[in-house]
Design a protein that fits this description.
354 residues, mainly alpha, 14 helices
Length: 354
Amino acid sequence: MSPNPFLGILLHALGGFAAGSFYIPFKQVRGWAWESYWLVGGVFSWIIAPWLMAFLVCPELSQVIGAAPGRSLFWSYFFGVLWGIGGLTFGLSMRYLGMSLGYALALGFCAAFGTMLPPLVNGQFPMLVATRSGRITLAGVLICLTGIAICGKAGVAKERELTQDQKKATIQEFNFAKGVWVAVLAGIMSACMAFGIAAGKPIASLAIEHGTPVLWQNTPIFVVILAGGFTTNCVWCLVLNWRNRTGRDYFRRGHISLAANYLFSALAGVTWYFQFFFYGMGTTRMGRYDFSSWTIHMAFIIIFSNLWGLIFKEWKGSSSRTHHLVFAGILVLITSTLVIGLGNYAADSASPSR
């Protein structure tokens, strides 16, 4: 399959929309503790959806997993466990900071580490600096990080401008200091997803050999990585259920609708999974500099999460200057995706035909 970076960007946009929107159904859950609805959503996002989609697009999934090198399976799962810590703290950052600021801070660190570490580790960085297409791609990455910084600055401005009551009117558990710490941890650990995908490349190759279309070659990898992520989140949520005595949430009726809570949690989980379904498709079309997929993915998540934040009035009460910063950050992020796409396109145009 020949590269098509701009189609890859479109697929990343769909993934970014799913990731930037998944937390919305959680807002409809009533009477459950955070750990309860996060775990129910996780069962769907890390176990049910990945296996179901892999079965649909990978004709011989069991043979692929069975024949995969043990080293590849181990490292994909291991990085999934580490990434799970990032996913866990990412959910907490939404809890304490809201969608706009939580996404911007957590994903800023995630974009920086997840984008730049892989080419540094595999020795690809000197080639990037030495070629025109590589420099264009790196410029796009820097533009993206600039856009993330602008969004973060807008969040800090909001923190300074609003009273505590105004913040809690839209984000009930708003806590800036606690939220920043978990956002930093979330961003650094979430970058392990990029390493998990790299470790799982032999699995993707096997999937193609067993008849999986190239576009969906990464789908079986996510079965392994997300199993690691589920392990981390399941253990911690069950610990919280025990410590906070919230295990009854899964069965207690009272004044809440159990069916509605399970439905909205499942919807959030499945929506969350689709970010990586489309992300895996997008990476196959990005060409030589597919490492830049992570930056593009982060950029679109922040774009859509900030738009949702505006829709849900998380920025209500902040100044026009702060609103202008938000829109400026979104515009810079959109620009970065176009520049990165141009760099990938230039790289593949200069490459010999495959």
